[in-house]
Amino acid sequence: MLAKLIQHASPLTQPGSARHILVVLPGVGNSPGESPGFEYTGRQALADLLARRKMTWREMDETPLSATIERGALCAWVIVDPAQPPFEQQTRLRKAVRLLLEEKPAEIHLAVYGDGRETRDVAEWAIYVALVNGAELPSRKTGGKSESGKPLARIVLHGCRNADGFAAAYARAEGNLLTRSLTMLPPNELTPAIYRAKIRELAGREGWKCREFDVKALRKMGAGAFVAVAQGSDPEDAAIVHVKRRAARSAKTAKTIKTAKNVALVGKGICFDTGGHNLKPPKYMHGMHEDMNGSAVALGILLAATRLDLPVDIDCWLAIAQNHISPRAYKQNDVITALQGTTIEIIHTDAEGRMVLADTLTLASRKKPDLMIDFATLTGTMHTALGCRYSGIFANREELLEKAGSAGKSSGERIWPFPMDADYDEELESRIADIKQCSLEGDADHILAARFLGRFAGDGPWIHMDLSASSCKGGLGAVGSEVTGFGVGWGLAMLENLE
User: Fold this and answer.
1) Which residues 6+ apart lie within 8 Å of 42 measured at CB?
2) What's the CA angle centered on 326, arms 322 and 331, to 5 degrees?
3) Which residues are catalytic?
4) Given 3-state DSSP classes, what are the helix, strand and coil percentages for the chain, each rounded to the nearest 5?
5) Residues paired with residue 158 on neighbouring β-strands, in sequence order
6) How far is residue 368's CA from residue 328's CA, in Å, rounded to a whole number?
7) How is the chain split into domains, by residue range?
8) Do 453 and 464 meet the contact criterion of CB atoms below 8 Å apart?
9) Shortest CA distance to 328 belongs to which of 203, 419, 236?
10) Residue 143: partners with Cβ closer than 8 Å, 6 or more residues away
């Protein structure tokens, strides 16, 4: 659990005992060169710095600055306009916080200037950015050489309060950090067996119910698509894990709970992906321990929703396995029967994600959720289409695309919708089975994957997110690490705005 780090203090004009200070100033509509007409920490030092660099006030819009001020304090200044998109606000704040975190401080003083609700919103983003970048992440460097250093022990917030103590910033940060911490673990420290144990421990701590369908049970159930991938590993420690969270039932909330929505979160959890018999070359196999990121995103959303006590019932379905090469591993031209009876012709063993998700989506859809969302680092073509700064989505309802887009804008985790028209199915027609797993041509594979998954998602409302933004060199939006935790903020925004 993320410790409650925030302490409140009076407005800050002089550094006092503070050693690391972030000053967040409002965007101004004045002519270039005019700073706000009020006192703020380090005002004269900033003016001197701008003069020395021959910069106008307006040029600070894109470039946070820092300098040593009175009593040796390091102060960083950033201009954040509340009217800007959240992604832009988060990016500016992340760049400014980084100027302070380079010294690995135990404490940051945060002074946000401005008035009203918009200022509190900016303060919430600033707290979130400090939390997700000031926390300790997995590292196996010895001798104190870890890049993350010691975690922040305290954030002192000056002159800005929120009735709920900025609970949303904490919840979102904790979900994001869980996702990134799991994703960054090396593959020998997150095998399917270890991952399952971690989920059981987390479920016990959070009061969630947890049920595991192991390979033996899945084989008996007829979940051939999942088993085809899992059977190549020794030991057979793969499983579909079902974690269930129900909104609190109490007399006070009974009326709300009666109308609570049920949401299924489905995540691809391939702990390591060799590609199977279609073995990946070293360049593309490196980093494949992160192929379980979709499942970690689902868990991060679940944790954040629990922290905020959202009136939403959540079923989290995690497809946890590895894609190994062995005499028992599935191979090209195999014909597999999935859980719901569809026969699948195997075209490429490195398209294992859609195989494990097929049976997992079938299990999830049988519960008839009001909304089902799956998360997966699924295709290279999505990364080719969007790069690492957006993730792509598909939906079987037009209105879901609109809601997803709104959640992307409000959360600062940007998404882009893709088509999944029925005529794409021509590429998946098989002469010997109901459907091909994929096409060897590779054209629009992200769309073909979505069409394939749609066969197993049932008739209810469904969104598929292909996580091309799960990893971005140099960071993305609020997050400074290469592993971004993308999807947690977006998913939380979707849950908070369910109708």
Assistant:
1) 15, 21, 23, 67, 69, 75, 77
2) 85
3) 280, 354
4) 40, 20, 40
5) 9, 111
6) 35
7) 6-165, 169-496
8) yes
9) 236
10) none
AA letter at 226: F
Long-range contacts made by residues 55-64, C-beta under 8 angstroms, separation at least 24?
A: 56/32, 57/28, 57/32, 57/33, 58/32, 58/33, 59/32, 61/27, 64/92, 64/95, 64/96, 64/99
Helix intervals (H) in 292-335: 293-307
- Taking the C-alpha atoms of residue 240 and residue 157, their distance in angstroms, rounded to an integer, is 43
What's the half-sphere exposure (Cβ side, CA atoms, 13 Å) at 17?
Answer: 3
191-219: per-residue pLDDT in tens? 999 999 999 999 999 999 999 999 999 99
Cα separation of the two ends of the chain:
30
6-165 has CATH 3.40.50.300 classification: no
Answer for the pair 21, 97: CB distance below 8 angstroms, yes or no.
Answer: no
Distances (CA, A) of 63 to 96, 108, 471: 8, 20, 24
Instruction: List strand residue ranges (DSSP E) for 113-253, in order.
Output: 154-158, 209-214, 239-245
CATH superfamily of 169-496: Zn peptidases (3.40.630.10)
pLDDT tens figures, 337-394:
999 999 999 999 999 999 999 999 999 999 999 999 999 999 999 999 999 999 999 9
**Rama region for 312: left / alpha / beta (φ>0; ψ in -120 to 50; rest):** beta
Question: Strands 335-337 and 343-345: what pairing?
Answer: antiparallel
Rounded Cα distance, 477 and 244, in Å: 30
pTM: 0.94
